[in-house]
């Protein structure tokens, strides 16, 4: 091979080498230019995501500024929680007060109705020892409780009972009449019919036997029995 041929071959090899290097540089350049928009987009996404990072990330930062920031975020979160709790407590208090006012209003209305319409008695039911004590001790203040002690086998007792029933209807707004068998009252039969009167749990009249208080002459009637009871302040 001649020297000229050697020189030509060397030039060709050198030219091809430069061509390959230029192409390689162009490819690298194109690669960098093509990647630039992607890198920019990725950076934008990272930037946006940083904007969306929640502030309430306790102990997520380091250094004095990070600690202060975390502390402030924690305080803000706790304040929001307390405000929510106070709002719930306030709602519960409002509900309680509303129910209390409704209940209190109903109580006042019931009391006012009781004052306007006094309790009516009007009858004379038979009672045992327990109901006798209940009537004497638990009747409204100022109510006179008349206890008739009867004998179901005595005609006189039956007549006086009829008179008392008449009076019970007439004085129903202020006097409560009940009756009790003499055996239940543990009284001697010779002392009946009898009458006891109570007010506010205290006995203030004892008519035993009741027949001794009636006029000797004249018939036994609601009028004569009424006069006797008024004389002893049982009826007013």
TrEMBL record:
Pfam families tied to this protein: Phosducin
Any single biological process term in GO: regulation of G protein-coupled receptor signaling pathway
Region ranges (Disordered): 1-69
Domain Phosducin: 90-235
Origin: domain of life: Eukaryota
Entry's family note: Belongs to the phosducin family.
PANTHER family (UniProt xref): PHOSDUCIN-LIKE PROTEIN
Stated name of the protein: Thioredoxin-like protein
Organism expressing this protein natively: Piedraia hortae CBS 480.64
